[in-house]
Amino acid sequence: MTEQRWAAVDEYLSGLFVPPDPFLEAARDPGSVSPLQGKLLHLLARLAGAQAILELGTLAGYSTIWLARALPPGGRLVTLESDAGQAELARANLERAGLADVVEIRVGPALETLPQLAGPFDLVFLDADKRSNPEYVPWALRLSRPGSLIVADNVVRAGAVADAGSTDPSAQGVRRFHELLAAEPRVSATTIQTVGSKGYDGFAVALVTG
Ligand SMILES: C[S@@+](CC[C@H](N)C(=O)[O-])C[C@H]1O[C@@H](n2cnc3c(N)ncnc32)[C@H](O)[C@@H]1O
User: Is 80 in the pocket of ligand 1 (CB under 6 A)?
Assistant: First the structure.
């Protein structure tokens, strides 16, 4: 199986499950989740009955739109982005998508903006700098409640997660992230390896149980 084949299958399935949408397409960036992953985030948020969502890593707002569209009337989404230019672009994309009143973008490194937030959030999506994922776990727990979901993207990193000797800070970050989740009595977690248009990676899902 080649990456070309994975991408062809993604294209086929996206054609079935993700109707064309100019607002999503305008917000899509090579660094965004894929359309099928965006739909998965949307479904997870709906399954969780999420009324408040926290996202780390906005980029141009693609996953933000998927998540925000899962909210019921009166729901809210806070998204954290360190790059002011990206935040501006995301703001325009969210406004065009009619979500300006639902989504609040906080600009700055997440470790500086997280302490300003009040939870609980029903779903926390970790998709910022992977090297900091271990530091985001305690924040995700502090800002959630029993029953909340914590979801993280890019946590397999083409298999580097299994390489204890990797010197890549992101690989080390996702290793430590998994070890923390596994040792945390307040969550029940799993990670699924994924292939597709974004190559070989993985999604972690953790249910906050206590
Ligand atoms: C993988 S992209 C997010 C993709 C987005 N969630 C989507 O799927 O459309 C990661 C984003 O995190 C941002 N970022 C990197 N380090 C950060 C930090 N310390 N705090 C907040 N955002 C950060 C980057 O600027 C980038 O926009």
Answer: yes
